[in-house]
TrEMBL record:
This is DNA sulfur modification protein DndE. It holds the Pfam family DndE. The gene is dndE. It comes from the Bacteria.
Length: 125
C-alpha cells in the first residue's frame, strides 16, 4: 500500500458518479479532494478500518493532489499523529483511504449538496 496510486471501492465510485452528475464537477480528483477535506475536519476517527478498493477508479497521487501534494501529505501526517498512528507509508496510505471514503460518504449523503455552490457552502458550516 502506498500513496503512489489511489484506488476507490465500488460503492465510493458509484457515489462519485452520482456526485459528478448532480454537481456538474467533471473530475474525480476534485471531488476526492473535497471528500478528504470533509473527513479530515471531523475530529472523530473513521469507524471503517478495512476498505476493498475494487472499482476501476484509480489515480496517481500527483493527479489527486495536484500542486498541493505537500499540503495534503502534511494534513495526513498531522492526522495520523493526532490519531496515534505511526508515520509510515502504510499508515498514511490507510489514513488517506479511510478518510477519502468517509468523506465521499459525507458528500453523497448530504442532501443539501446538489450544485457546486452548495458544495462550497457546506465547507462553511
Amino acid at each position: 500500500m502506498s500513496l503512489d496510486t489511489i484506488r476507490l471501492s465500488q460503492p465510493a465510485r458509484d457515489q462519485l458518479v452520482w456526485l459528478k452528475r448532480t454537481t456538474g464537477i467533471k473530475n474525480w480528483n476534485v471531488l476526492c479532494r473535497w471528500a478528504l477535506a470533509m473527513s479530515l475536519r471531523e475530529p472523530s476517527t473513521p469507524l471503517i478500518k478495512e476498505i476493498v478498493t475494487d472499482s476501476n477508479v484509480e489515480m496517481s497521487w500527483k493527479t489527486f493532489a495536484g500542486s498541493y501534494g505537500d499540503i495534503y501529505l502534511a494534513l495526513l501526517r498531522q492526522r495520523c499523529a493526532a490519531d496515534g498512528e505511526p508515520l509510515t507509508d502504510e499508515s498514511l496510505s490507510r489514513a488517506l483511504t479511510i478518510h477519502l471514503h468517509r468523506g465521499i460518504g459525507y458528500l453523497a449523503g448530504n442532501e443539501d449538496i446538489r450544485t457546486i455552490r452548495e458544495l462550497v457552502g457546506s465547507a462553511c458550516e
